[in-house]
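seq:
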Amino acid sequence: MALQMMLFHQGEQHVIDVRNIEETEEIFFMSKKITLSMEELRTGQKVIYGDWGQRLEDDTPVEAMVIVGPDVTCEKALKLLREEIERRLVER
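struct:
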């Protein structure tokens, strides 16, 4: 089963397969049923979100995000996101 991510680019949405990911992160995201999405800012930075299904009273998703520069690899960015999600889930 491939991990997928919703990519928002220039007002369009695309679903892409995530190929550049370490096995630890892939297992984590899939086992926790984390929905991934990403958008690129005008600065070249990427914002990667992880949604684990929790919602606020107004149905807004509770999610974690990381902002990385264009020089950060996909593997590193997804590791940072996993670490942020783990931190957020412990705080609950």
